[in-house]
Amino acid sequence: MLQQFITRYSELNLGKYKVNEPLAPYTTWKIGGPADVLVEPAGKEQIVQTVRLLHDMQLPWMAIGRGSNMLVSDKGMRGVVIHTGHALDYVRQEDNLVHAGAGLSFIKLSVLTGNMGLSGLEYAGGIPGTVGGAVYMNAGAHGSDVSRIFESAEIVLETGELVRYRTEDMKFAYRHSVLHEIRGIVLEATFRLEHGDRHEIKALNAANKERRLRTQPLQAACAGSVFRNPPGDFSARLVEEAGLKGFRIGGAEVSTLHANFIVNTGQATASDVLTLMERIQQTIKDRYGVELVPEVLVVGER
Ligand SMILES: Cc1cc2nc3c(=O)[nH]c(=O)nc-3n(C[C@H](O)[C@H](O)[C@H](O)COP(=O)(O)OP(=O)(O)OC[C@H]3O[C@@H](n4cnc5c(N)ncnc54)[C@H](O)[C@@H]3O)c2cc1C
Prior knowledge:
The chain is α+β, with helices and mostly antiparallel strands and 302 residues long. It has 8 helices and 18 strands. It has helices at 2-11, 44-57, 106-115, 131-137, 167-170, 198-215, 235-241, 270-288; strands spanning 15-22, 34-41, 61-64, 70-72, 77-83, 91-94, 97-101, 118-119, 140-141, 144-145, 150-157, 162-166, 184-192, 194-195, 248-249, 252-254, 262-264, 297-299. The strands form 6 sheets. A 5-stranded antiparallel sheet has the order 6-7-13-11-12. The protein has a 4-stranded mixed sheet with strand order 1-2-5-3. A 3-stranded antiparallel sheet has the order 15-16-17. Flavin-adenine dinucleotide binds next to strand 3, helix 4, strand 9 and strand 13. It holds the Pfam family MurB_C.
């Protein structure tokens, strides 16, 4: 069936594809086995057609943006991985509304809207994913998140139906959106921002960036916060207090800078990271009776 999919995808001229493609380079953790097939549809219409084809053929698929919140298993992904990538990396301004393609870097969007003198995305300056991934995760920082500025999104559902979802459809919550419950690909998101002072926006952006550089291992291969914060507390505080900073399994290490980050010191496998995550969860449960829940998404064949 996969071969039939590739044949049809090529005949329809939907974009690039790669067979048995290692996913590690597509993730910020630089970890993960191969996808049976990785496709990079050339544009919006091609993504829609790809999803329709996959639906007709009943093949499993997954979207990947920047891979900055994902742990791909060592065996990799069966089926088809749709890399939104650079095909949808545009931005269009309409007064205080900004329409952004799902493949655009969220950091770039933050910079561009700052240059436009639009306020609201200053918090996004250090979140290294795509617009699509940010909507999926309701990415947030510094007391804000996507839900605060979200207007609507154009989404292709797994059935191939094209819909426009507004905030009330999105079920936004802490690192959650309706896209965790139904399957679909964000093609474009529209954000409602506020006119502001360009210099103030840029200064806030720079301050946020500076704070991150001080507190997060941004040069290392990592995927941001590994665990969600438990109600009323911080995972990093618990992990640090438990003395786990610097604790290592194989090539995976609890960051010495930020206790809720796990860094790949060079040769870490997904299995190293998973074992380390389990050890952290067990330690925190034994000591504090708190169940840490992963924020990173563990995907692929186990
Ligand atoms: C150094 C560092 C710092 C970070 N700091 C923060 C932070 O402060 N706040 C925060 O919230 N996160 C943070 N993260 C995590 C991560 O950057 C965000 O969750 C980001 O929004 C994920 O986007 P992505 O494109 O990388 O998504 P991916 O990791 O590629 O995918 C995540 C999920 O989104 C889905 N997805 C991706 N694109 C689409 C699409 N177009 N349509 C539908 N679904 C899609 C994927 O299928 C997957 O289920 C950080 C990560 C790093 C490495």
